[in-house]
Amino acid sequence: xxxxxxxxxxxxxRVGIDFGTTKICVVIGxxxxxxxxxxxxxxxxxxxxxxxxxxxxxxxxxxxxxxxxVAELMSGxxxxxxxxxxxxxxxxxxxxxxxxxxxxxxxxxHDVERAIDAAKAIALPTDREVxxxxxxxxxxxxxxxxxxxxxxxxxxxxxxxxxxxxxxxxAQNIIxxxxxxxxxxxxxxxxxxxxxxxxxxxxxxxxxxxxxDIGGGTTDIAIFVRGSVVHTAVVPMGGNHITNDIAVGLRTxxxxxxxxxxxxxxxxxxxxxxxxxxxxxxxxxxxxxxISRSVLTKIIEPRVEEILTMVNQELSNSGxxxxxxxxxxxxxxxxxxxxxxxxxxxxxELPVRRGVPQGVGGLLDVVNSPxxxxxxxxxxxxxxxxxxxxxxxxxxxxVYGKVITRMKTWLGDVF
Length: 415
Prior knowledge:
Blueprint: E1 13-19, E2 23-32, E3 35-45, E4 49-50, E5 53-54, H1 57-75, E6 81-86, E7 92-101, H2 109-119, E8 128-140, E9 143-146, E10 156-167, H3 168-180, E11 184-190, H4 191-199, H5 202-207, E12 209-214, E13 219-225, E14 228-235, H6 239-250, H7 254-264, E15 277-280, E16 289-292, H8 293-318, E17 328-331, H9 340-348, E18 352-354, E19 360-362, H10 364-367, H11 373-380, H12 399-408, H13 410-414
Parallel strand pairs: 1-6, 3-19, 6-11, 12-17, 17-18
Antiparallel strand pairs: 1-2, 2-3, 4-5, 7-10, 8-9, 8-10, 12-13, 13-14, 15-16
């Protein structure tokens, strides 16, 4: 019986669930003194999600259960709680600020809380809710750029924050799916913020960088300057649009188009080697045909250019592009397309690298891919501010309110 894996303590476990348009990915990690050790991974095609939004709860729950089962078998532990990613075109981010008078002329925790409350005192439609309030910096009197103001003297405290809001129903549906799979939700995290934990270095965040997470249905953007998030946005196009173009252009099925994209696709015609031929299965039982890779690239390249042009427009409109000293990091499953980083450098006019999860142990060879950036990042997100297992949602009727309460008070935990 010595060969049986000993279950890890629940207090040591971290679980991240990435609800992607193409796949649902479940990653289990164990906290160690060195960081996170990946011990289980489960992946399943997501048939009930479109552009990051749940559109079919039974199909999503079924896919989630299968992914969870695979991850549990691999790790030898039972999943009871998880952090979940959220994305989609309904996500909106903006910057805000608030000013308060400092009591007793010395900044205390209560002053910081009041300043943050003043910054997030915004009017929202009833169908939207705050997902994240992320501190950027503080100003005491006229001294800007203060990261931790507690204990400093002054009479006026201003907080600058980045606020991320999302559609209430979209978050509720994610929580409902996870609960129906028998798992408790401990937090909901914007997916590009989770990905940033896995693929960006502290130096990149400090000097200025843009994370571009190219998923199946959307492309998510997060810009970091001086160590903080200053801009988030979503472009409503992703890898599935490339796959659909291939299916239409080559008259093949979506499944075969995806395989062709992964195995033979290239985003930049100038990078193609000598003329190569590929076999394309036809729909309806027709005989397969051969085409050159250059024909395939002529289908892929315009769509990738369109996505990157929209990203470039978003970066320019943000007003922070000139501060991105270290350039751009692209991640997500669609970023694996050959030639995409090179084309991105040309269109964005910035240095570009492909980001994969860093700083993890265990099954590193398995998760060493951009497609796992979000799921792995969920394990890392918030480790310095709270313990995941200290927050439990047991009342399913009030589950959403409790998660929102946790997210709204996140900054309070920091201080």
